[in-house]
Amino acid sequence: MIIQSRYSAVLAVLGALGCLCANPARAAVIVSVTGNVAHAQISLANGANTYDAEVTITFDTPLNLDAQSLNLTAELVNPNDPILTARFANVAGVVVDPAFPMMITVEPPNLGWLFKTNFDGNEDGTGMLSFLNDYQVEIHTANLTFVQNSRYRILKAPVGGLFGDITEDVLSGSVRTRGRGGAFSQFVVVEDNRLVLTVVLGKIVDLDVRILAAALNNVLQGDLLGLLSQVQLLVLLDVGAAISALDELILEIQIGATNGDIANVWQADHSVTNDAGEMLSLAKTLRFSLVRLQGGASNP
After folding, report:
1. What separation in angstroms does the CA of 85 have from each of 38, 54, 218?
2. Start-to-end CA span in the chain (Å)
3. By C-alpha distance, which of 63, 212, 43 is closest to 124?
4. CA within 20 to 30 Å of 202's CA: 68, 126, 176, 281, which one?
């Protein structure tokens, strides 16, 4: 009873803080969880304008996944705010469309001291969110209009940090941007006006840096860097072959995560580094841009 009362009190405080941050008549973020999928319905208003989004996050083997442990919030931003645009330094050429100026933040709290009662198979009693490998995030909004070869992309950044492109797909209905990540972040949908080759080369560099930063044995790291070098060499010669080399790299990361050679766990207390999830996110967004390049797209 004491534990449950403590848990209820904390949730009440979190709820009160949420009320202080947003006028419920002007903003709504409703989060539900079914199995390994979290779904958020978002509606934010600014004067006479209303901006709506559906956010779906699909996890690989989550523990303690619920609305409180996910802690998903949303806010409207000024597309011309210099503080925001400075965070696009690594993706210069992207802009936030005024038709959808929304930033979504997922920042799971560290509740390692907080124990839940009556937990089931996907909870360990701590209340602290964790998952394996990468998650897929989809932002769907009717505020944007889909066209073939859409320039809309999904970016993510550490809270307050620099944004990077994680786009894995862009689908119709109206606009659905999908991406992957191995850690949590802030997300925005942007219009990308860069040349596709510029994007591809930048993503190769990002993945190279992340492979070098990962805690890997020398053989595995050498294999991954060798495959990435093949991708880089083939970009201007045979994009199809570059995609095949990248697919080998992705498979090797997945195998390494499965057999324990690559760290693949994310926890809300940030006590471990999810190397596999972060590398997979970068590799899969690189694949998206390579496919665009193979199809003859001039923009990413």
Report:
1. 29, 24, 38
2. 55
3. 63
4. 176
